[in-house]
Amino acid sequence: MKLRIKGNSLRLRLLRSEVDQLLEVGRVEEKIQFAPADDASLTYAVEHDHSGRFISLRRTDREIVVVLPTLDVENWARREQVGIYESLGLGAKGKLEVLVEKDFACLDLSDAENKDTFPNLTAGATC
User: What integer pLDDT is reported at residue 118 of this predicted model?
Assistant: First the structure.
């Protein structure tokens, strides 16, 4: 899973196996370690929730979890739909754009480098 943070946007891109895991297990996560200390890490994850109707976000000092409605995940996984998107209101602080997308193959990379990505339907474009 790839994580991209830019300004007030949080974008997660999932490989095919990660989308399958999200469907089967209910959660996909990655961890980045910033220093040798045990508490110098950040876990970022995507989960789905059967009772959810909208994307939500849970955050602690060491974890960020994007929670998606189960129905949205099931529909997204089984269709050619690129992603699930939500703009979360932050009151006076504006909005946080949350994007959870399939990770598509880059047309300028080798098959080995594109392993486990979704087929890219955009002929002639580069990433």
Answer: 56
Token pair listed for 17: 């196996």
- Looking at the DSSP assignment, which residues form a beta bridge with residue 76? none
Cross-strand partners of 118: 104
Name the DSSP class of 109. Answer: S
The first and second tokens of residue 121, run together, are: 């339907």
- Print the SS3 string covering 20-73: HHHHHHCEEEEEEECCCCCCCEEEEEEEEECCCCCCEEEEECCEEEEEEEHHHH
Q: In the numeric block, which tokens belong to residue 114?
A: 């594109």
Domain architecture of the chain: domains with CATH:
2-102 (3.30.1360)
Under DSSP, is residue 111 helix (H, G, I), strand (E, B) or coil?
A: coil
Structure tokens at 20: 């399958």
pLDDT at 109 over 60: no
